[in-house]
Design goal:
Blueprint lengths: L10 H33 L27 E8 L4 E8 L5 H7 L2 E3 L7 E4 H10 L7 H14 L10 H28 L22 H6 L6 E7 L4 E2 L17 H16 L15 H16 L9 E3 L2 E6 L4 E6 L5 H6 L8 E5 L2 H11 L9 E5 L9 H7 L14 H8 L11 H17 L2 H26 L3 H15 L6 H9 L3 H11 L2 H31 L6 H16 L1 H23 L33 H40 L14 H7 L20 H7 L22 H7 L1
Parallel strand pairs: 1-4, 5-10, 10-11
Antiparallel strand pairs: 1-2, 3-4, 5-8, 6-7, 8-9
Length: 750
Amino acid sequence: MPMDRTPAPDSAQHARKRSNQWRRWQQEVIPPLIPHFVRALYLTKSLRYCDTLVLQARRACTGDIPCASITKRKIALVRFSSVENIELEICECTPAAVQLMKYGAFPCAPFHPSLAVDLRVLEFTMNLFVQIAPNNTALSTTLERCLGSMGFQLDHQNSLRRRFGNCLLWYIHLRNQTKEQYSTKLEEARATWEAPLPFPEPSPRTRPSEYLRRRCPAADVNVCIDACFTQKKRKSPRDPPRTHPKTHFVPEEDAARTEAYVDEVWQVEEKRAKRQKAMEDALEAEDGCEASFKAADEKREKASTEFFEDTAIMGLLCRHDRVLWLVNMHSAGGEETLFQHLPLNITVGLLYDVACSFERTCRKWGFLGRFMDRLAFAVSVFHAFGHEWACQLLYHPRKCKGFGFTNGEGCERFWHSIGHLIANLRDLRLYTLDMQIEHADDASLTNLGEWIRRRHLHSMKKRTEATAALARCGKPVSLLREQWALQVKTQTKPLPPESQLRNKEAALGVSQRQALHTLATSQYLRLRMNARALKRRLRDRLRSRKFELDKVERSFRRLVNDQKLYSHTESAVKRREPTISKVNADYNKLCGEIAKLVQEGKAPRGAVAPQPIPAKGIWQLDVDDGIWQDVRSGIKAMLELDRCDEEDGRLKKERCSLQEWFAEEWAICLPDLGVDKAALPPWGPAAAEISACVVDAHVAARGEDRHYGRNVSDDEEGEDSGGEDEDFGTLDAVETADIYRNAEERSSLY
């Protein structure tokens, strides 16, 4: 006998219903609710005195014809410590959302809600979810059980989760739309230009665009880019689009157009763009850098386009670690977008993990062709260990002009700060990321001045150390610059072909052949070549060890099975440590033998013995350790003084930009808001005036270097800034580079 079965839900009907509901929220409910929300904030002093609001009776219809239908609706109002049952009379003139907003609550549905939530509960939850991973289920269940323990029961178990989620979702949207409306009102008071699309020529500008100044008032031109492959989205039906009013993402249509252009260039090999100038770097060194990073990527799990719609996120951040743009990794175009917002005479310093390969690709295929003369490429400081020495001579930011002490690791710090969101971004992914970034920007805005002050103190300390080192060297700066230029020229010169070497050897005379034979049998030369081979082997093994630990160090969620895999990886890497230590010991032994030959006069005139590598520091991967380079102390001090000069000049410009931005905002806001106030003094408003204005703002803790990091005092900076790899936040990719540190360091990091 056939059994009656419940019909399967119609997915298309559900999608239409959800789309209609979203349209009503966005077009019919939220816009007219903004003035009532602003008035509620004003009457309650930013929800401080929300208990003073009373439920008002429905007023008579204001139209010529009274509303045909008046519906009475019982609504459960959820507060922190109670559930209040209220009854509303709803009509077209007085919708439920307006009546509830006047009472300090927000509905769960556009027109006929069955539940409302206190604005203070929603405000608390909104701020909580930018500090931790959003988890509506856990919060609503906790609130429901807490109210149940006090004797307040809802309709049935788990009845709060979905409706509370709707309240929170659209309250956040109301908040953002309100901020955007007032920002637009203030922008109308200043002269602005419309930001063009990525492909057209940028408009002439005398200063960065208002968009760029909003993102970073200091408006610096040193930026870093990087991709995060853990931030991805599975292929699934999307909800109706809901874009954050202040989104950081490049529009998908612009990114798709750039992606199509890149694919077309790569497919047509016969029409490759010619290089605009010859690359200075030796191709052998550049190929080695590309091969090492490519090998590391092959060991890392990348998102498959078969399962994921958005495979990663590419970020473009300024040197203050403030996000300028984001773009989904199935596309490109962030660099093109940046130049639309800058004056035509500004040169941008771009830091990237593989900047050498990136510049080579751009010149080979003609990407960013019209902007290449305004781009200066450099490698992020903490990724310098993966590059050949010849590459570092040209791309290391401490050895390139114009970068100061910018390290280019802001993207790594940003990826670490949003790592807790990976498991929770199944839906509303882009909107949630925009919310997190906006919260971080609000928290760091009041701290930009403190950031500049601390960087100035750091630059002063570096200048003192470099000046002392230069004095100990005793060589004139002109001689050091000459030697540095010769070293760069020699070590970046392409190697001659083997055929040329054979021809030159065949052309040697008798005496020259004898001299060549003497060199080939020289004990000093043999030891020197063996030492060079051991040092290269040690570099390769340390680099491989770092890449093997990369997966362990970047893991945010430690599941049981994953923990076993990570433990196995750690033990396997640890078993190879004695081999690395032995190679290091052999190298130091050869250094001692070479030094002995030099002292005994058995080495060529002017020969200098290589410096031994301390066994204690080989695991730290400091980019200035002896394992990575052979620059003498005088040249290092000279280069550091150059970076100090650049950093001080950059900090002065950033300070002026920040003061100009604040003075302009002050001059625009006061008259437009109807505030009668005198002109801004040169030193800014008093602390009491600022404190009186900051009622509902996110204030960063004093002494916090950046919005993703921890509190760092000036004394702590002296310890953290001992090497070139100073970092003022938790940098997951580098600061945990050695997982086998002692227990004290392990506990301090985790």
